[in-house]
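Researcher: Re-running this chain for the archive, since the previous output was lost when a drive failed. Same request as before.
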Amino acid sequence: MLPFTITETLLMFFIYGFIGWIVEVIYYGITEGKFINRGFLNGAICPVYGIGFYCVIWLFRPYLNSFPILFFGSAAVCTIVELIAEALLYAIFHLRWW
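Model: Regenerated structure tokens:
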């Protein structure tokens, strides 16, 4: 059972996916000197960030007062989400996106 309503879940997914896209575009704009759309979609969203942030919020709500669990747990969850996303995108598109 999800701890949030469908509306809250979708809202968090799109907000965090958009924030992740903005951070990547700014980073690559500074390092490359030009605008680069870092998402594999046409819109301004990186779904991997939306999924990663949502998983962290969902799984680590009980541990808000434990910085080590939050830090290392978040790193582990986000790494796993990235690995799964890379494997799926490679299986579907036969391209390495990272």
